[in-house]
Amino acid sequence: MKIRDLLQKNSILIDLQAKDKNEIITQMAQYLASINNLPDADSIARKILEREAEMSTGIGFGIAIPHARVDKTDRVYMIAARSVKGIDFSAIDEQPVHLVFMIISPLNTSAEHTQILSALSRIMSYEDMRKKLIAADRPEQFLDLIVKGEDKYVE
Fold this sequence. Notes:
alpha/beta, Mannitol-specific EII, Chain A, 6-stranded mixed beta sheet, 6 strands, 46% helix, globular
């Protein structure tokens, strides 16, 4: 499974205005549910917030990858958001988060879930990629950068 199979231009929020981690997760869960006709945005947000309570998915370098396995989900879903000013996400490096990738998957799809997390982590480990994504001002540009990064950095 590839990121390009999950992320579409309509699933990229280019200028998210959330003020904190709970707000961004709630907004992204609602948007994810609405664009994919998923039944319960509140349940998605709750699962991801429960996962965040265990350990922050702010992986450092301005990146967060909130994720959860969700009941009544038929496949892996992903959306992305950019916050120009940054959000306190309790990241491991204590720096604000500018790029958020939310992933939900069915309870029984650990291989695909892990594969996407790994690919995203690899792509985001490159500073030039992070800088270009933060500077992207259109969803099409953001998506194009992700696709090129996946081609270049993920086997």
